[in-house]
Specification:
The structure is a single chain. The protein has 22 helices and no strands. By secondary structure, it is mainly α. It has two domains: about 230 residues, no CATH class; about 260 residues, no CATH class. The longest helix has about 40 residues. About 5% of the residues have low confidence.
């Protein structure tokens, strides 16, 4: 029977591979595959074959700045074990009802009625997961080889990732079966969940108290990020948390091995933990069919909503919620689109939540940067905010899809509205503009507050200049977000077949390549769009700062940039509106 199940898995894998190879005959998939292969070659393969030393993958200058006492492997071991511990705790605490094992609808229809024992079904599920785990291990190895400071070789990294992912997969399966058994024995799911959450809270409190009593002294003098994270890792590796992190350290030790000899020394304990998990899973004989069927139905509905753009993270059931704001009648049609799309987002995107986050930022950031080690705190916050700002600005438009990209299948209905095309486009993009602008404004607020300790050391960084610059940047952010969002919405209108292909549930290197083409195209277009605005603002600031002062020159340059960007956004809205009015869903949106 196990051989037949293995044959089924291998045959399914072969058919999936052949079907994806056949669709390369279509130009949109072939070009996407070329882009995906080129990305993997230049980003991963060249690093994999280029050789490395223990610290070669660190950012420039960081390896030279490492303190002699800094143990990179020990620090990564502590943080990695902490991540595994958090994942395990969430696995036990999150399920509100009986968790089902992830079987597909076809597997449920054909295998559940078949004369196959539950233990065989569990092995079939574990066997299918191994295919995904091996593929993920190879992909993660290609990515982590860019961090060649980890040491080791490609084979040890693949095996290390396989041990980590397989152990986690076995733990997920064992936890689901154990929770099912307890519920079948009469345990109340809500009481069980609250008891586990209370236990986690108690464990967290005991860990914090034990760490506070045994934490090493904070390093003195001018410290850098490596010193701070090393101190943080040594602080967490104390007390109760030290014992809780031991299993995670053993599991990730083979991946962090610097050479083959160390890998073979550490693979034994990790393999014992994996074998223990397998025995735990294999010995369980509990009902999971009903929960698995419910899980498959929820997964199918979630994927359908994800393709339609109506899926909200963390919320499978649509619940009644308060309106984001009162919709005035009569009012602007564009505001009605904003109101409608905000209802399809998470409830956290509310004015009260934004205000609370702003107040929390105003209290937390000055407390961090105003302490004894204000330079370290300010450096960490500035670095994190700069990274978040860049990622949100570049990748935010690809993630915030509550716009025309979600409503494109309903374009025929939208075209019946007595509105101009540019009004529909503007109304559709208002929601992601509001979300991205709010995130970037909060990030800008934290950055401005973190720069306060440096004001005394930099002559031109006066409070008035910081306030003026922050207000000017804040004024540019909404227009810049609008310009960013026009590009993916234009791609959805110009290349609807490609855009629908990137949203389908079946992936592959060709679909990944199509997504890369979209991202690269957006990045290129936004650079070309920003060039005249940046050039005009720079020329105005350089020419006028000697006459009217730096602050006034920044304001004048911002007005010039806003004028240019606003003109580009207006032209983009007009052009996309004309394109939308001519858009024919029946002829454009073909599979």
């Amino acid at each position: 029977m196990l051989g037949a199940l293995l044959y089924l898995r291998l045959t399914s894998l072969k058919n999936i591979t052949l079907s994806r190879l056949r669709r390369l005959k279509q130009p949109k998939y072939f070009l996407g595959a070329l882009a995906g292969i080129a990305y993997i070659y230049f980003i991963f393969y060249r690093q994999l074959s280029g050789g490395s030393t223990a610290l070669a993958g660190l950012p420039a200058g960081l390896s030279e700045g490492l303190a002699p006492t800094f143990d990179l492997t020990a620090t990564l071991s502590v943080f990695g074990a902490l991540v595994l511990l958090v994942i395990v705790l969430f696995t036990w605490a999150l399920p509100k009802e009986k968790p089902g094992l992830p079987f597909s609808e076809a597997e449920i229809a054909f295998l559940f009625p078949a004369p196959i024992s539950r233990r065989r079904l569990i092995h079939f599920r574990l066997l299918g997961a191994q295919i995904r785990i091996l593929f993920s291990a190879v992909i993660f190895t290609l990515i982590s080889r860019g961090w060649s400071f980890l040491g080791g070789g490609a084979l040890t990294h693949v095996l290390g990732w396989w041990l980590i992912l397989t152990t986690l997969n076995l733990h997920f399966t064992g936890a689901a079966l154990t929770i099912n058994r307890h519920i079948d024995n009469g345990a109340n799911p809500a009481i069980r969940r609250w008891l586990i959450l209370a236990g986690v809270a108690l464990l967290l409190l005991v860990s914090v108290l034990s760490i506070s009593n045994a934490a090493p002294p904070f390093p003195e003098g001018n410290i850098g990020p490596t010193d701070f994270f090393s101190w943080l890792a040594r602080s967490m590796d104390r007390g109760v948390l030290y014992w809780l992190l031991i299993p995670g350290k053993l599991v990730i030790a083979p991946f962090l091995a610097a050479n083959s000899a160390e890998f073979f020394r550490t693979v034994g304990p990790a393999a014992l933990i994996l074998i223990g998990h397998y025995c735990w899973v294999a010995r369980q004989e509990t009902s999971f069919e009903e929960a698995s069927i419910a899980y498959a139905e929820k997964r199918a509905a979630r994927l359908a909503r994800l393709e339609d753009g109506t899926y909200r993270l963390g919320q499978d059931k649509v619940k009644v919620r308060r309106e984001p704001f009162s919709l005035r009648v009569p009012g602007r049609a564009e505001v009605a689109f904003l109101w409608k799309n905000l209802l399809g987002t998470l409830p956290y995107f509310h004015a009260r939540v934004w205000l609370g986050c702003a107040l929390l930022t105003c209290v937390t950031v000055p407390w961090i940067v105003g302490g004894e080690h204000q330079k370290t705190g300010a450096s960490i916050i500035i670095t994190l905010t700069a990274i978040f700002f860049a990622y949100t600005l570049l990748l935010g438009p690809q993630l915030a899809r509550q716009d025309l990209r979600s409503d494109l299948p309903h374009a025929d209905i939208l075209k019946t509205y007595p509105l101009a095309g540019w009004q529909i486009i503007l109304g559709e993009i208002l929601t992601p503009i509001a979300i991205l602008t709010g995130l970037l404004w909060l990030n800008l607020l934290a950055l401005v507050l973190a720069l306060s300790p440096m004001a005394d050391k930099i002559a031109w960084l006066t409070p008035s200049f910081r306030l003026t610059a922050s207000l000017c940047i804040g004024a540019v952010i909404p227009v810049l977000c609008a310009l960013q969002l026009l590009i993916p919405n234009a791609a959805a209108l110009l290349f609807p077949a490609w855009f629908q292909a990137t949203r389908q549930r079946s992936g592959g290197i060709d679909v990944m390549g199509q997504r890369l083409i979209f991202v690269f195209g957006q990045f290129l277009v936004i650079l070309l769009s920003l060039f005249p605005a940046v050039l005009g603002a720079a020329l105005v600031i350089f020419a006028s700062q000697w006459l009217i002062g730096a602050s006034a020159a920044v304001v004048l340059g911002t007005l010039v940039a806003l004028t240019i960007l606003g003109a580009e956004v207006a032209c983009g809205l007009w052009w996309l509106g004309e394109r939308f009015e001519k858009f024919d869903l029946a002829t454009e949106l073909r599979p």
